[in-house]
C-alpha cells in the first residue's frame, strides 16, 4: 500500500486503507492513513480523515480522533464547505461523535446540527442519521421531554445493537474488549477481546 503512495496513486492507497480497516488490521490502516492524509486534497482528503477518525473511535481513542478531524470539521463549520458530500458528512459525524464520547455535548450538538443542515441536500438516509445523532446527544444531555420509559422482558436471548460506533461501546462498557482500553477506564474485564 505504501508503494501506491510512492507511485503517486493515493486513491488506490485509500482503498487499501479501507480494506485494512474492514479486516481488523487497525495498526496497518492507521499507519497508511497517517501517511496518506497529507498527500490528498479535497474530497479524498476528507474521506481519509474521516476514515482515520473512525478507526481511532473504534479503538476508544476519542481525544485523538477529535484532533485528527478538527481542521476539516472546522472548515465545514465555518461555512467554507457548503455541500453535503458523503466525505464532508463523514468528517462531521466523526467530529461530533468524538466530542460526544468525550462528554462535550454542546459541541457535539453544534456539529450534528451543521451536519443535519448540510444533509438536507444529501440522500434522505444522511439526514436521518444526523437527526438520530442529535437525538442521542439530547438524551445524553437530559432532554427527556419526549422520551417515555419502556419496560420489556425477553423470553429468550436478547440482541442489543447500537450500530457501528455504539455496539463496540456497549461491549466495552460490559467488559468485553481490549484489556488495555478497559483498564484505562476502570472497567472490569469480562472477556479480553482486542477486536472490539
Query: Class by helix and strand content?
Result: mainly alpha
Gross morphology is: globular
Give a short account of the largest sheet.
2 strands, parallel
Oligomer: single chain
Strand order of the largest sheet: 1-2
The separation of the N and C termini measures 24 Å
Mean pLDDT: 80
Short description:
The protein is mainly alpha-helical.
Topology (elements, then pairings):
Blueprint: H1 2-6, H2 10-22, H3 26-36, H4 42-58, H5 62-77, H6 86-101, H7 105-119, H8 124-140, H9 163-173, E1 176-177, H10 179-184, E2 191-192
Parallel strand pairs: 1-2
Helix pairs in contact: 2-3, 2-4, 3-4, 4-5, 4-6, 5-6, 6-7, 6-8, 7-8
Report on the structure:
With 196 residues, this protein is mainly alpha-helical. The protein has ten helices and two strands, in the order αααααααααβαβ. The protein has helices spanning 2-6, 10-22, 26-36, 42-58, 62-77, 86-101, 105-119, 124-140, 163-173, 179-184, and strands at 176-177, 191-192. The protein has a two-stranded parallel sheet with strand order 1-2. α10 links the parallel β1 (176-177) and β2 (191-192). The protein starts with a helix and ends with a strand.
Amino acid at each position: 500500500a505504501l508503494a501506491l503512495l510512492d507511485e503517486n496513486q493515493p486513491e488506490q492507497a485509500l482503498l487499501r486503507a479501507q480494506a485494512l480497516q474492514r479486516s481488523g488490521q487497525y495498526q496497518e490502516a492507521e499507519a497508511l492513513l497517517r501517511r496518506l492524509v497529507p498527500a490528498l486534497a479535497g474530497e479524498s482528503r476528507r474521506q481519509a480523515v474521516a476514515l482515520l477518525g473512525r478507526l481511532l473511535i473504534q479503538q476508544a481513542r476519542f481525544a485523538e480522533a477529535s484532533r485528527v478531524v478538527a481542521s476539516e470539521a472546522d472548515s465545514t463549520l465555518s461555512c467554507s464547505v457548503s455541500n453535503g458530500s458523503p466525505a464532508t458528512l463523514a468528517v462531521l459525524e466523526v467530529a461530533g461523535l468524538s466530542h460526544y464520547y468525550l462528554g462535550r455535548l454542546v459541541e457535539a450538538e453544534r456539529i450534528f446540527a451543521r451536519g443535519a443542515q448540510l444533509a438536507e441536500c444529501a440522500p434522505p438516509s444522511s439526514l436521518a442519521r444526523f437527526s438520530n445523532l442529535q437525538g442521542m446527544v439530547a438524551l445524553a444531555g437530559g432532554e427527556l421531554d419526549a422520551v417515555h420509559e419502556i419496560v420489556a422482558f425477553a423470553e429468550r436471548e436478547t440482541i442489543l445493537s447500537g450500530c457501528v460506533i455504539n455496539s463496540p461501546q456497549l461491549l466495552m462498557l460490559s467488559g468485553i474488549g481490549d484489556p488495555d482500553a478497559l483498564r484505562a477506564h476502570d472497567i472490569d474485564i469480562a472477556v479480553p477481546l482486542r477486536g472490539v
